[in-house]
Amino acid sequence: MSETTPLPSVHTGRAGPPAGAVAAVGLSKTYGSGATSVAALTDVSLQVPAGTWLAVMGPSGSGKSTLLHCLAGLERADAGRVVLAGDDISRASDRVLTRLRRTAIGFAFQNFNLVGSLTAAENVALPLRLAGARPRRAQIRAALESVGLGDRARHKPGQLSGGQQQRVALARAIATRPAVLFADEPTGALDSAASRSVLGLLRRMVDGGQTVVMVTHDPAAAAAADSVVFLLDGGIADRLERPSADVVAATLAGLERP
Ligand SMILES: Nc1ncnc2c1ncn2[C@@H]1O[C@H](COP(=O)(O)OP(=O)(O)OP(=O)(O)O)[C@@H](O)[C@H]1O
C-alpha cells in the first residue's frame, strides 16, 4: 500500500481525514503543596486546529511535558478545560479516556506505550486489533518500512534503541491514523538524515488531515511545524506561525537568557 492511499480512520470508521482539533482553556497545574509546591502551568490557553501541527518549546522546567500530558489526557489539570477530538476530557471518566486513547489519540514517546512482550509489528498492529480491525501484514510492513524499520519487524522494544522505539510508535500512528498524535522529542535520538525523514512523515500525516502536537528542543523540528508556542515558567511567552529555524533559535535563546 502506498503512503498516499487513504486508510480508514479508526476514530470515525470512515475513509478520509479524522477531525482532531485540540483546545486548552485556562489550564493550570501545580505539583506538591506548601513551600515546595511548583506551578507547572498557569492559565494556559491554546488552540490547535484539526490537520495542523503545533510545536511546544521552552527552557527546561518551563512546563512542556506537563502541557503535553494534560492535552493528551495522561494527567489532569487542576483548573481549566481540554477539548480533544470533540470530547471534553477535563472531567471525562477513565473509561472515556481509555476509549479515546484506543481510537483518537496516538503517542510517540520514548520508553512509553510500547508493549515489551510484543514485536515491533505486533505493537504497530495492536491498536487496530483493539479497535476490532484485522490489519493486513502488508499494511503493517509498509508502516514499518516508511520509518526505516522494515528489517526490525520481529524485534521487541527491548532489542531496539530509544530512537527506533520511537519510530515504532510513529509507524503505529501511520498505520492507525489517530486523529491527534502527541510526540515528545520525536527527533531527539535521531541523526540528521533520520530526523529529516521523521519530520517528512509527520508533515505527510498532517497533510492527510491528522493533528500533531509535539514537544521539541530542536529548532529545525519546530520550524517544520505550522506553529510554535514558547513556554516560560508555565505560561505562554510567545507564539510564532511558520517561523524559520533561525527565528525559533533566537526566540528560544531570548527566553533562556537569565
Ligand atoms: N511529578 C512532579 N512532581 C513535582 N514537580 C514536578 C513534577 N513534574 C514536573 N514538575 C515540575 O514542574 C515544572 C515543569 O516541569 P515539566 O516537566 O513540564 O517541564 P519541561 O519544560 O518539560 O522540562 P524539560 O525540558 O526539562 O523536560 C518543573 O519545575 C518541574 O520540576
Automatic annotation (TrEMBL):
GO molecular function: ATP binding; ATP hydrolysis activity; transmembrane transporter activity
Keywords of the record: ATP-binding, Nucleotide-binding, Transport
PROSITE patterns hit by this protein: ABC_TRANSPORTER_1 (PS00211), ABC_TRANSPORTER_2 (PS50893)
One cellular component (GO) term of this entry: membrane protein complex
Entry keyword ATP-binding: yes
SUPFAM superfamilies: P-loop containing nucleoside triphosphate hydrolases
Domain ABC transporter, residue spans: 22-258
Superkingdom in the source lineage: Bacteria
Alphabetical list of PANTHER family matching this protein: ABC TRANSPORTER RELATED, IMPORT ATP-BINDING PROTEIN
Protein name: Putative ABC transport system ATP-binding protein
